[in-house]
Structures are given as structure tokens and as C-alpha cells.
Amino acid sequence: MSFWRLIFCSARFYWRSQLGVVLGTAVATMVLAGSLLVGDSVKATLRRQALDRVGRVESALLGGEGFFREALAEEVGGGSAPVLLLRGSAARVDGAARVNQAQVLGVDPRFWNLAPGPSGAVGAGVWLNEQAAAQLHARKGDTVVVRVEKPALFSRDAPLSGEESQVVALRLEVAGVVGDAQFGRFGLQAAQVPPSTVFVPLGLLQERLQMKGRANVLLAPGMSSDQLSRVVSPLWQLADAGFELRALPAGRGTELRSSRVFFHPVDAGRAGRGTDALTYLVNEIAAGGKTVPYSIVSATDAASSGFLPAELADDEIAINQWLAEDLGAALGDWVTLKYFAMGERRELEERTRRFRVFAVVPMDEPQLDGTWMPDFPGLSDKKSCRDWKPGFAMDTTRFRDKDEQYWAQHRGTPKAFVNIMVGQEMWANRWGSLTSVRYPGGTDASALEAELRSVLRPESAGARFLAMREQALAATRAPVDFGELFVSFSFFLIVAAAVLTGMLFVFSVEQRRSEAGLLLALGWLPARVRRLFLAEGLVLAAAGVVAGAAAAVGFTRGVLHALETVWSGAVGSVSFVLEVRPGTLAAGGMGALMLAGLAMMLAARRQFSVSPSVLLSGAPAGVVARGGGTGRGRWIWIAGWSCVVGAGLLAAADAGPGAFFGAGGLLLCAGLAGCVWWLRRTEGEAGAGVALTIGRLGVRNAARRSGRSLATVSVLASGIFIVVAVDSFRQRPGEGAAGRDSGTGGFALVGESALAVYEDLNTAKGREAFALSEEVLKGVGFVPMRVRDGDDASCLNLNRALEPRLLGVRPSDLAGRGAFRLSWPGNKDWLALDEVGTDGAVPGVVDEATLQWALQKKIGDVIEYRDEGGKPFMVRVAAVLKGSMLQGSVLVAEKRLVERYPSHGGYRFFLVDVPEGRLEAVAAELSRALQDRGLEVVPAWRRLAGFHAVENTYLSIFQVLGALGLVLGSAGLAVVVVRNMLERRAEFALLAALGFRPGQMRWMAFAEYGRLIVMGVGIGAGSAVLAVWPALRERAGGFPGLELWVLAGVLLAWSVFWAWVAIRLALRGVGVGALRGE
Amino acid sequence: MLLQFEKVTKRYNPVQGGEPVEVLRGVDWTLDAGESAAILGPSGSGKSTLLNLAGALDRADGGVVRVEGRDIGALDDAGLAAHRSRTVGFVFQLHHLLPQCSVLENVLVPTLALPGGTPREAVGRAEELLAAVGLEHRRNHRPGELSGGERQRVAVARALINGPRLLLADEPTGALDRENAARLVDLLLELNAGRKLGLVVVTHALEVARRMQRVWRIEDGRLVAVEPAA
Q1: Residues B152-180: tens digit of each pLDDT
Q2: Counting CB atoms within 10 angstroms of each CB, which of A49, A582, A806, A951 has the fewest?
Q3: Considering the entire predicted model, what is its pTM?
Q4: Residues of B with Cβ-Cβ distance to A689 under 8 angstroms
């Protein structure tokens, strides 16, 4: 015989009466372990998605705004694949469905070889991923129209970037749909919902976009990003960086040009001993009252040019003979140049500068030719200068015949030259300060190229090496741990299970009080007896853990199914993987076991505090005199009233929903303290002259077992409080969304386009470019924002946002409107967004929820980014937006964004002010007119509601799990009722013997429990009303919350039902026979 | 002197308050080793209270209870437990056997309270005791498989397993028929004589009381000696 043998014998013998412990622990284990398994499953799902997204790709080279040679993939080897990755839109040919934000990938078999699974079925032709196929309702054989922007090597924001339509439409027949295993999830950003992707044969896309042999993404398997960088660097050619060495005519030398037209000296370095040149189109050259329209002027280093006078000063100009004759200008005359300088948002500002004629270059000067002019889009390829489309409004009527003749004969031959420094002062821009570097004749082109290649780096061309797999896996470390989240959501359910476990354990122990008395009488210490019973309980709880662990898998499966269906608002369309980790099950089971042990220990702590003789007598617990009643009663009274006062103070402070929730919580505590006081008072009324009725007898019975009664009231009240009060945090779609300080910023519409919009839609010219109706758009205002793609850091993305999307906004656009609720320390406003910190960090504004949950940062923290040249820079979180629809992005000043990403062009995010009543008409007009740009317009309140839906879904989950806890609490109530009734069968038998009718006895029992139920529901609902008061007050349309009262009513009815069922069952067949046990 | 009561008082407080009820009022009483005594008295007179005080199941409100010269009122919880474990053996009206344990295990239960748990030799001793009470053939049975008399004899064996000097029996025959009651009393007296145990039996039954060396009656909270012939 040993202590443990006795425990196991007892556990085996009493397992029926301890079944409640087993079940209670099983429920706690099921919920706890199940919740943790939800966390594991979400992690596993994100991991699977990440691996599906990257396939066999380890690292990637991203071209940024540039395009490198497709052949680079071949040179890198190891199964690398070139990809042309573009944004675009896709639509069914009948226009019945469209995808505005599509990812268009030009791929070849090398790409499919990197798929996570077998992709043998994927062949040539156009393929859609499942997301795109679902949105387009497209199947094999259907025709879709894909629109992509012809990639611009030269930023369309830049001056002289041309203005021809750059959208290319491809009419394609769908060859099939690729699944996740076949690389359908491929994308650069981590998100649980993959982008809608159209896979187009690489050759076809290159051909249609006139990008033959070009790619902008290189995917490398089996190579880290560092390794890839080391492999690529020596292979990186001038062409990969968009440079070209051209031989000048007649062996006059060699010229370095960029396909991006403008470039910075740092890009090319000063590797060669070349002469810098910056060539520009000026609007007018005037002298002596005569003008020449639209002429090419070059700036170069006169001293090293070989044909310009070395002593050319900064205020002097050398003009060619043709111009001198046309203007009648002679040496020493003054000429004026008029030219456009680029402002923000492609705003052109015409400026003038005067120069004195220092030299006239004869037209037969060998260096004077058209090679000075770079390939300005819209100019270089035009036969007539009247056909020029340089990208700004040009008055072609000003061209004279002699201008046409000059163009026909001399093409882009500069009409004038100024010093390079002066030229750069006038025309340098964020894209560069040079258009060419010219090398003298006799330069060894091969040596020059080698020299240039040695200083050119992929990063300096805006390319970037991405540790794709590593980052994909890093992103799966979700900012919100779903395991912890569901454990906290299930808190009440777990507590209810623990309370039930403790209560049922005590019932069992109470049945065996004489056994405890015997052991004490035999010399056992009370602590040892307690340990014996507790150990026995734990042995049975362990059995519950085993059962609960099995049920936990079912619980997890159920939760995941709910997240895929009814709770999909929280996570989007995700197909979850069930991940059952034994370690997690064990941890959950251990936690539940400890919780059950604690509950049993607390519940049974006073079970053996009476003398062994009392225990041996078999007298039921709770019928012996208590000590210190008066003192404890006073403390209960003080605690109760303190809670009432605290609740009043908090409510009076009116510090928002949180304070009211706290006040409600205190009132709940006060109510429960009041309940204790009432039970004690009722207990003491025997013999105090209170008239005895059947109902009163029942009420007095409730006081007999005050611990059980209090547990019943507490579980009901707490459950109702939690379920109802949490409702106060629920967001109502559209409520108060019109104000400037609301989450919509007072904007009516939000638009996002797949392709950039370069035109200013606030201007007549911009609207005209898209044939937008002035009548419909009357009074409509736009706040355009630049978008630097990055991770979605909103609550809609379960992945960790490593580099959140940047939105570049002109601060005055929002400051002028007073838009959004901005919380900026020091009471600064939007205008402060333009200020750069002393450490060079760019100030950024982030939505509060994004900052707290997705980024897990606070004001003052920094987020690291890399600029276009690959240099790191910091965005410091300077302010937060309260509850805004701009979740998921970091807002910075537009000026700061283009400084870091100079090649970036156009706007893709729009906030739209719309006069009242014209929302739908404006939305329809914008959608129609900007269809080619893939503009998707939604009402701002709906976008906000989308974010609120996530929050509301989480609240719903909490409420459902809380309600389940309440159901468990009600079951506990039923058990208490049955238990009490069974204990008192002899009493009821006596009443029966005394002539009581069954109905009277049921009524007496019900008076006991009905009072407890009413108290529980009343205390819970009353304190919940205080907690939800701000929400009730803010809602328009009278006293709302019907659902709140319906909920309370249902819970009340549910509890009454269980109590009634339990009473009927327990009192069935009560007769005089039960007296024999007396 | 094995057991000594000096002016011992005991009161009970009613659950709902009111005047305490004094059941023992200055009891003076002694019992020597090897002596047997019966306590008679009507229900509620304090017989079991007296026994509980002797066995340290309760504490006196006044006076001193000494066992082997030691004031058990001065003992702490551990001391009381040790006293109950080693010095006293109890037999109750209801046997209070653990239904989850076999007969042998029930006899061994008190040994679990000893420091270090059940000693190896305890099993042999339990078997001897079972043989002494005539139940060696039932050692592996459960209490539910025994008759009332047999259960009570197991309870006696259990009371003796730790070798107590004082055996306290509270209405030991109350739940037994006449024949079984007689056999149990025989057993108790045999043990009393053979092991030099002090034996105190609380009973309503005069025929049981008459077989003890000394008989006492509780009257109005005090012990009154009764002549053996009574």
C-alpha cells in the first residue's frame, strides 16, 4: 500500500462521481489546447502560403524601375528565371467582370520550373491563377483583355517624357488556371490573399511592350541574396543599368547615354575622361525682338569640348550659325532662353535666363550634329517638329517652315551651347543632371566599357537583391499570435470550465467527508488529506486532459472552419491548414491540468477545516457555525460600496469607452458583493421573526449553500457582462463617417489604380486627358498620393509587414482640409510632414491600429527602408491617425518620397471629395474614364467598414466564445441545482410526507434558483449597460441596443430552462422512501 | 496512568448563534493501561465528545486531557496527528472502510500517515491482525463484499495496525446484530487483555458495558461511576 496506490484506487473507484472533473478538465483542455492549435495552424498556413509563394526561389534580383537583359538569367545559371513583372488590369472580353489590381507576369518554362510543386501541365499560353480566375469567372478557352502600361525607362513625371498613350491592351485566350502548387501564389509581397495574376508568355509580353530581351525580375534558386549579388555584379553590363556606349559619327569619339535620358554623374562615375553634357528643349530663344520656338540647347564643359571657346563664361552662350542668322544676333548681343522647370506634380514653371553671345559655331563644325540630343520620347522619332509630343502643352503653330527645315536637315543639333554648370542650374532634375558623357576620338571603347562596368553596381541603377525565401518566412511570424488571441478570446469559457471543475470536485469531496474524517482520525495531517483528494482529482483531470486533447483537434478544426466561413471577415479568404503539434497539445493539456488543479485546490481549501469528529459525523458542509461573520460582512459592505463609488467616478470622468467598461466592471464587483451580503443576511434571518412562506423557504435554502449560490450568480453575471459589454466596442458601418475628423477624413470616395495616373485630376487639363465630364465632376476635389509598393500592414494581412507600403501625399492637401484625426505630439499638423529630422529620418504618419498591432511600434520609432539607390533610410513615426481608413500604409510627404525614389512616377491612390448626393455618379464617371488605368473606386465609408469588419469579427468571436462559456455556466447551474436537490431529497420527502404537493416543492426550489438567476442576469446586464453607455449614447435614433436586450433575455431564458429541467429531474419520484436514509 | 481528564469542559455553539450548549462540565476521569471502561448515557449526553477528546479528534474548551502524561491540548496539528496515528486506535459505529481499497489495504491505511509511509513489515503485521480478527481469508476482498460484523472487525484490525496503547470504540456494536456484537466485544476484550491496551467503549448497550472492568455514565455533563452490577 502506498499513497499513490490509494490515490489510483480512489480515482478508479470514484470515477463516476468525479466525472464532472474529467469533463470540466476536458472542456478546459479542449479550449486551451484547441486555441493554441489555432495559433499553430495559422502559422503553418502562413508558412505554407509563403513557401507556395516563393516556390523553389531563394533570392531575387528586382530591377526597380529599370529593366535588365533577359540573358542575365542565363549567365547567372543554376536554373534562374527571368520575369517581366508589371501591374495592370484584366477584364473579361464581354466586360462582365474585371480585376483592377492585377499582377501581369511575363514568364517562360524557366519560371514554371521553380514552382513549389509539379507544374508539368502548365505550358505555353496565358494562364490565370485561381484568384484571377475566380474574379473574372474565367475558364480555359475564355478570352480576357489585359491592360498594362508600356514600361517607361524614362519617368513619366520627368520633363520631356512624352505624352503618348502608354497603355497596351492584350487580348488573350486563357490556357488554364494554375493552383498554388503550380506557382499560382507567386508574388513579391507577403499577404494571405494572393494577387490576381495573369501569366503571359515572356516573349509575347516583351514583343507587345517593345521590351525584347528585357526583364525586371530574376528569380534564383539555391542561392542566397548575397551569393546572387556576388554572381550578378561581374555580369552586370551597361545595358543592364540602361546605359549605352555609342560611337559618334566620323570617328569623333564615343558617347555614353542612358535609356532613362537623364542620369546622375554618380551613376556613370567619372570613370572615363569624358565631357559631361546636358541637352534640353527650351521653349524659346529670343534676341532683338526675334524669337525661335522650341529649340535644342546643350550645356557642356566648353574647355574640354574641343570646339567651344574654353573661356566661355557662365553668362555667355555660343550659338550656331543658323540661329545667329535667324535671330540676327552677333557677338556681344544678348539672347534670352525660355524653358520649363519641373515643379511638383508635373507642374511646369516657365523660367528665363539671359546670355551674351560669345561665339558663333559654324554649321560645318564637325562636332555640331544631332547626336547631342538624347532620345526624348515624342521628339526623336518624329519626322516633323509639328508632330512633337514632348509631354507638355506645345504651341505647334509657332513652328515656321524654316524650323521644319532645320529639323529635317539637322534633327536635334543644338542651336546653342552654355556651360555645363549653368545648364545644370537650369535643367537638372531629380532624375539626373546629364544626358550624355562624350569621349574624344581614339578612346578605346572596350576599355572604357570595362572601366565603366567596374564602377557600375546593380544597386546604383535602382536594382535590389531580395532574400525572397528568408523574407517570406520572416513575414510568417505574424504580429498577432492567433494562439494567444484565441486563448484570450476563450478566457471566459476556460474560466467557466475551471469553475465547473472546481465545483464538481467539491461535490465529490463533500460526499466523502467522513472518509476525510477517518483519515484525520487515523493520524493523517489535514494537508496530507487535502493532497490525497487533490491528487485523486488531478489523476482524473489527467484523464480529462487526454479526452480534451482529442477534442481540441475538433475544436481547432471548427474554429478554422469558422474563420474560413462566418468569421472570414477577420482573415480574408484563407484556406487553413490544420497543424496538430504534440508539444502544443501537451502544453495546452498541462495548462488545463494546472488550471483544474488550482480550481480544485481553491474550491476545496476549506473542506477539511473542521474537526475530524464533525467530518466523521457526515454532517454536510456549510452547516457549521462560521467565525468572524461580523468583521467579514463589514469588509464585504465596504468593498461593495467602494466599487459603486469607483464606478460612479469613472463614469463621471467620461473618458471614453474604456473608462465606462472599467466602471461597468466595478459595478459588477459591487453587485456580486451585494449578492454576498444578501446571502449572509438571508442566512441569518432564521429565528428573526421573518414570516415563512414556500418562496421564502426556497430563498433561505439558497443562502444555506452560499458558496454554490455565489458561484452560480458570478458565472452568470460575468458571462452576461462580458458578452454584452464587449458589444460597446463594436463599430457600426457608416456611423459618423462624414466628418473631417472621422476615419474617412471626410472624403467620400477612395480610388486605387493599377497603373499610375500622371495627370492632375483637379485641373481641367487633367480631366480632359481622360475625357472626364466637367459637369459630373463639378465641385469634386482630389488628393492624389504616390504609392511606393510594400507590405500591407493593415489588419487584413496576417503576415508581418516588413516594409510597409509608403503613400506620398502633399501635406497641404490634408492640412487645408483638416482631414482625419491626427495625433501629433506637440500639436503639430499635417504640414509638419515636410520637416526632416536632424538625423535625416523622414517623418511618417501611421494609423494607430497599424502601428500598434501590425508594426508593433510606437510614436518615435523608426522603420527602415531602402531608397532607389539601395541606400537605407529611416521613416520615423511622428504621428498617428485614429481609426482611419488609411490603415496598412505609412504616409510621408510626397516631396520626401520622390527624393528617395526619383524614378517613381504618377499617382495611384486618391482621396476624393464629392458634393453631397453625387457619390454614385462621380464614382461611375471615374470608373468609366479611368478604366484603362485600372482605377477602382469605393465609397470611403465602405473601405473604413472593411477594416471595422475585421475588428467586429474579432468581437463576434469573443462574444461567441463568451456565450459558450455562459452556456457552460448554465450547465453548471443545472448541476448545482441537481446536486442540491439530491442532497435534500430527504427534506423534500419530509415535505411530501407533510402534505406538500410536487408543484409546491418545485416552486419552492425554483424560488431558490430563480432568484439566483435573476440576480446573475440583473447584475451582469446592469453593469453591462453602464459599460456600453457611451455606445448607446452616441447612436442616433433613440434608445437602441435591442439586440442587447434580446441577448440578455435569451440568456435569462436559457438559464431558467436549465434550472427548471434540473429541478424536475431531481424531484422526480421524491417520496417518503427517501426519509429512510435519515 | 494512560488517560487522564482534569476538569474538562466542552461547549458547542449553535449554528445560528445563541447560548452555547455545554456538554461536558468539568469532567475528572482516569484510565490505566490494560483497563477497560464503558461510557453510558443517553443521546446527546456527550459520550462521543468525551471519546473524541480522548482521541484528540476535538479540543477541550477547558481543563486538561492527558494521554500517557502528555497534555494533548498543548499539541500542534502535527503533534495531534502523530498522537492519533501512534497512540490511539479508533473503532467507529460505522466502520468507515474505504470502499476503493481491499481489506488488507484498509488495514494498512493508517500506516500511510507514518513518516516514510508504510513500513515493509507493516504488511505482515496487517496479515497477523487480520488473522487475529479471523479475516485472513478475506484479505483481498473489498468492504462491499463483507458482512457488517466482518467490516467492523476489519475496522478493529485497522485501529491496531500502528500499535496504539489506547483503543477507543464509539458504539462499535451499534450497527451489528446480537451475535456479531458479542463476537466483536469478545475480540476487543481479548485485545485489551492480550496487548495490555486501554479500552474505552461508548455504548448504549448494557450487555456490552457490563463486560468492561469499569462502567461510567454521563449525567448532566459529568461522569458518574456505575457499579458493575448495575
Answers
A1: 889 888 888 888 999 999 888 887 788 88
A2: A582
A3: 0.77
A4: none
